Structures are given as C-alpha cells and as structure tokens.
Amino acid sequence: MNKFYITTPIYYINAEPHLGHAYTTMVADAIARSRRLLGEDVFFLTGTDEHGQKVERAARDAGIDTRRFADGIAARYRELFAALNISNDDFIRTTEPRHVRAAQAIWRRVRDSEDLYKATYEGWYCTVDELFVPESQLVDGRSCPTCGTAVERLSEESYFFRLSKYQDRLLDHYRDHPEFITPDIRRNEMIAFVSSGLRDLSVSRTSFKWGIPVPDDPAHVMYVWFDALTNYITAAGFPDDEVRLSRYWPADLHLMGKEIVRQHTVYWPAFLMSAGLPLPRRIIGHGWWLMNEAKMSKSLGNVVRPQGYMDRFGVDALRYFVLREMVVGQDANFADDTFLARYNADLANDLGNVVSRVTTMIVRYCHGVVPERSAGSETALDTELQERVAAAIANTLAEAGRFDFSAGLRATWELIAALNKYIVAREPWALAKSPSSRALLEATLYNAADALRIVAALIDPAMPESSERIRRMLGSPAESWVDLRPGTLRSGARLGPIEPLFPRMEHTVDELRAMAESSDTRAPEAAPATANSPATAAGGPPAAAAASAAGDKITIDDFMKVDLRVAKVLTAEKVPSSRKLVKMTIDIGTEQRTLVAGIAESYEPEALVGRTIVMVFNLKPAKLMGIESNGMVLAASAEGGKPVLVGFDQDVPPGTRVR
Ligand code: MSP
After folding, report:
1. For residue 20, what are the contacts with CB-CB under 8 A and spacing of at least 6?
2. Burial of 242 (0-12, 13-18, 19+ CB in 10 A)
3. How deeply is 562 buried, as exposed, middle or buried, from its count of CB atoms within 10 A (0-12, 13-18, 19+)?
C-alpha cells in the first residue's frame, strides 16, 4: 500500500487561531481524505510551534506561566480542528519530550557534520515572524518587510549553521526535482533567492530561555525555526523508531502559506542534507486570505474567526467556501457577500435542491425504496447523464491529484447542474401520472439517485459531513474512489429520513457581519414576515413604485431572500362567497401546494388550469377566507386595472427558480 505523509505548518501559539490557520489545515485535510479514498496509507500531521521569544512574551503579558499558556492555546487549536472535522493522525507540540529528543538528535548530527560554529550575531530580528532581517530589507530603517512591526537589535553569541555550503546542492536539487517547490512563482523566487548567495544562519539564542537547550551548551536555546522544522521528522519516528521513519519519511507534501516557503525550501533541506536525511518530496506554498486587501493576520487585527461561520452555516459550508474560492497559489479575499452568495447559490440551490428533489420523488413515487434501473427504457438523455457522471469522476479525481480542490469542486458542480437539468427535461412528475411511463420513471429516479451517490463520493474530501448525510438519505454505504463508476447504486435499498442539507440563508450580509463579530452566537430576530395577502399579490401598488416612493433601494441580498419559483396550475376553483379569490393546487416540481390568489376578476378558474405561473415559494403560510395559502402568485396590476399574471415566452419546467 502506498504511503502518503502530509503536513501543515505547526502554528504559533501566541494568539488564538484564525481563518488563515484553519484554511491550511482544511486543505491538508481534504488532501488527506482524498488520498485515503484512493486507498493510501495516509499520515496527516498538524500541531503547534510553542517555543521562542514571542510566546514567552505573550505568556508574560497575559500573566500566565509559559507552559500553562501554551497548554491553553494548543487546546484551542485542537478544539478548532475537531470542530472543523479535521482527520489528522497526530497533533505534535514542540514542547513534548519526543520532540525535544528529536531536535537535539538532529542538532548533534548537524554538529557532527561540522556545519555549526560559534560567532556573534549582530543585527535585526523580527520577533513576530521569528526571523533575522538583513538591514537592507528594513522598511523605513526599522520595520519588518513581512509583517510591518518594529524589529529589534540583537547582539549576542550564537551558533551559526553553514547554510552557504549548501547553495549549489540546493540549486541542483531544485533543478533535478522541478516538482519540489510549487507553484512555479514560488519556485522561481527561491531559485533567485538562493542564486543571489546564501549567508550562514544564526541557529541559537542566549537572551531568553523558552526553547530547546542546545546539547552540551545549555546557555543556548535553539533558534525556533531549527526546532520547529524538525517536528516533521519527530512525528515520523526520528530518532528512535527507525522502522516508522523509513516507512513515512520523507514527507510527500509540506503544505503552508507562501510566507514560509523559504524556511521550508532552503533551511529545512539544508538541515536535512547536513544530517544525512532524505528531503521531503514536495512543498506547496498557497496564497493568503486577505481582508481589505491586506493579509489576514493577528498583528494587523483583520482576522476572521471560523467559529461564527460554522455556527451559522455548518462546518461544510465553510470548508466548501474556502476550498472552492481560493485557487491554491493565489490570494483570495474573504468577503461575506461572496460567502453568502456561494452558500445560497451552490449549496442551498444547487446541491441542497437536487438532493431534496431526488429523494422526495423516490419517497413519493417509489415508496422510499431505490427503484430498479430498468435499462431497457432509457434514452439518449440517460446516456448523456451517465457520460456526465463519468466525466465528473475523471475530472474531480484528476484535479484532486493536482491538489486543486477549487477545480475539483467545479467539476463536481457541473454534474450537479447536469443532474438538475436531467430532472427538469425528464419531468418525473409528469411520468408519474401515466402507468405506461412507470419503467421510465423508475429508470429516471434510479439514474438520478445513482448520480447523487457519485456526488456524495466526490464531495467527501471537501465536505465529509454532507457526503455522509447524502449517503444516509440514499441508504448507500461509504465508498472509496477506487473503481468509482456510475450504475452501482443498489436497487431495493430503503432511503433514510430526508433532511434539509443546506437551508437557504435569509440573513443579509450586514446581519451576518454583526453575527461574526459578536461573540453572541444566537441568530438575530427573524425579519417580519411579508403580508401574505392577495391584495399585495395582485392588487397593491407596483413594488418598484412603492420602493422608490419611500426612497429605498434594496440590495441583491434583499432580493435573493425572495425565493421565486415556476409552478404549474393543476386545479383552480373560485372561493365561494369571495369576488376576487381563486383557490389553486399547483405543482412546483418537488411538491404540490394550495394557493389562494386575488385574480378571479381577471381569470376564469378553468382558464388557469395547465398555466405556468410564478410564485413566492418561501412566504409564510396565511389563511384567506379560512383556506391556508402556501405562497403568493405574481401578477402585474396597473393603477385601477385588473391583475395580469406573470408568464414566460417559452416552456419552463415547474420548480425552476426565477431571479
Ligand atoms: N510556526 C510557524 C510555522 C512553523 S512550520 C515548521 C508559523 N506559524 S503561524 O502560526 O504564523 O502560521 C502560519 C501559517 O498559517 C501560514 O503558513 C499559513 O499556512 C497559515 N496562515 C496564517 N495566515 C494566513 C492567511 N491570512 N491566509 C492563508 N493562510 C494563512 O508560521
């Protein structure tokens, strides 16, 4: 069995985790899950980087003992990762004895290679990034070029690592292993950096104590990056467990943000070469989440906390958003309106809707049991769907192999769109009316459910919880990506209880922002319900006129709150003792509803039957003349005129959204 060892950076514990930290871990998790689905023996490592002056100071500022402080924040990381459904196999803390042993062991090996010497370090240091900053790179002569905080002057005895000795070997390695650093932009930067000449690196400090003691010289603690990078071999068993080490090391993928690619592609391989250990296979530097055009970071105070989004939208909505929205390698802006739009469009409308349509129809037309495939009755439409399924499998797997979940999810969503179209084109609700169409109805619902099974499998790495929920609804077991193909859903399986996957989110962006910023996790009060009266539907002033009279403009989010759907009138009759009201039964694709509308003066009930109308799908029910109306019909009403129903110039199937 192939092994796959994947790591995230280990995170500093001077502050609470934010979305940037969560992001790397979510991407790594999706990769780890995809490799497990391919049958690989995955070892997925994350953890915390606990030493260094920054942590020592943060603990002192908080008035807490450094070790207790470290325990507190490390626990917050663990909790966050559990809430994010992260499937890490190990969580390493650099204060653990196993790591102290490993860091000291690699130090000795480097020392034995005669790559360490003592000298005085005289220069600038950024404590936030734990980096030595050359004077020529200072911004305004005093600030760190990476994070903008003021640097400190250091002058102390230090061990130096002979980094300069490895310049040519590093360049040779980059040349011989073009996949070592990705994307190309990072690779080119590193080639340029190393080619411009490497200076030896200071790897110990004497001015503080919160670090791993240098072997045989306890006045020194190791430079935090020397200590931290070693975590990757500690967790693989170094130095004690040779069997494990030879199984998992070298790592197959170190994943991180672009700002620490240099430490991973220059320092780390040089330390490993010096210690006589193999180099990791691949380093990927992803882009940054930006907020207001700046890197989201604690020092700038512009961070998004993941918890609020998980509470409101569910963990998979957050996972989906970050994986879909950021193309690995590029920066992305975290904006609430994009989040909300993606949630409502991709998750509520596309995925949620198709799952609810298919499962509801199987319940309604097939007693909740997956029907027979009845291949004999299929047509070109079914073959086309199966081709779409096969293409989605091939494309999603190929993109996952390139660690590109944005493209992978896009490929899966193409299948969801195709499935929605297939249902609309086939009109199972129409087939259900005639016994002679029974075989085709069953074939349609089988194929649709089978395609859903594939969707569930393809979203599994990105959205494990939703994948599992869809499978439960379909009564279908978990399945691997090996040999995933259309047509293997088991007929006769009983569907599980149907539950909404991603209910439409009716909050505005402003409400969301307030929720994300507040620590209060309760949802705000629901907006007052619009009056569900036939007068509003067909007899009131035109909506635009009313809005402009009030001087108001609504946002697209306000508009998107109104879920407009196409429906077909099945029956219509006048409401006794009412001049205006008509009671109708309408078909909205997945269900039938009763509607009452004030259009009797314009339309004879018989003329309404079979007509396509537009209705407000998500209006609270209201009683009109004792009849419950579940929605509202759209009609235009000129001043003093009679209502005229909204219609289409082409056939549009029931259930289609109008916007
Ligand atoms: N402790 C070091 C890493 C040592 S690895 C041997 C460190 N820690 S950190 O807490 O600052 O985390 C940095 C990592 O968090 C980034 O490399 C990236 O993976 C993630 N991110 C932090 N902010 C981020 C964004 N704004 N956007 C995307 N990822 C970000 O550096």
Report:
1. 257, 288, 289, 295, 296, 297, 303
2. exposed
3. middle
Report which of 130, 118, 123, 160 is spatially closest to residue 52, judged by C-alpha positions.
Answer: 130
Interval between CA 640 and ligand 1 midpoint (Å): 65
Q: Enter the tokens of residue 301.
A: 């105070």
The Å distance, Cα 492 to ligand 1 centre, comes to 49
3 state SS of 612: strand
Closest CA to 304 of 285, 284, 325: 325
Nearest to 36 by CA among 385, 395, 464: 464
The C-alpha atoms of residue 309 and residue 316 are separated, in whole angstroms, by 10
Query: Residue 142 corresponds to which tokens in the numbers above?
Result: 């005093």
What DSSP character marks residue 605? H
The C-alpha atoms of residue 349 and residue 659 are separated, in whole angstroms, by 12
pTM of full prediction above 0.85: no
What is Dmax (Cα atoms) for the chain? Answer: 101
* 559-578 residue pLDDT tens: 878 889 999 988 889 888 77
Side-chain half-sphere exposure of 137, counting CA atoms within 13 A: 14
Task: Report the C-alpha gap between 282 and 200 in whole angstroms.
Answer: 24
Question: What type of residue is 256?
Answer: M
Interval 390-431: pLDDT, tens? 999 999 999 999 999 999 999 999 999 999 999 999 999 999
Q: To 10 degrees, the CA torsion angle through 563, 565, 570, 576? A: 40
Q: Where are the beta strands (DSSP E) in 557-621?
A: 564-574, 582-587, 592-597, 612-616
CA angle at residue 107 from 265 to 178, to 5 degrees? 20
Name residues whose C-beta falls within 8 Å of residue 635's C-beta, 6 or more positions apart in sequence: 537, 538, 597, 599, 602, 643, 644, 645, 646
pLDDT digits (tens, 9 = 90+) for 537-552: 332 333 333 333 334 5
> Over the Cα atoms of the chain, what is R_g?
31
Q: Of all protein residues, whose CA lies closest to atom 24 belonging to ligand 1? A: 20
Lowest-confidence segment of 32-41, 64-73, 89-98, 588-597 by average pLDDT: 588-597
Q: Ligand 1 centre from 335 Cα, in Å? A: 20
**C-alpha to C-alpha distance for 364 and 568, rounded to whole angstroms:** 18
447 CA distance to ligand 1 centroid (A)? 44
- Under DSSP, the state recorded for 180 is S
Can you tell me the distance from the alpha carbon of 258 to that of 102, in angstroms, rounded to the nearest whole number? 26
For 278-324, list the strands marked E by DSSP.
283-286, 289-291, 294-295
| Structure-token pair, residue 608 | 């309404």
Residues with CB under 6 A from ligand 1: 9-12, 20-21, 23-24, 49, 228-229, 231, 256-257, 260, 288-289, 295-297
Q: How far is CA 182 from the centre of its chain?
A: 21
Q: Show the tokens assigned to 129.
A: 């990034």
pLDDT bucket at 531, cuts 50 / 70 / 90 = very low
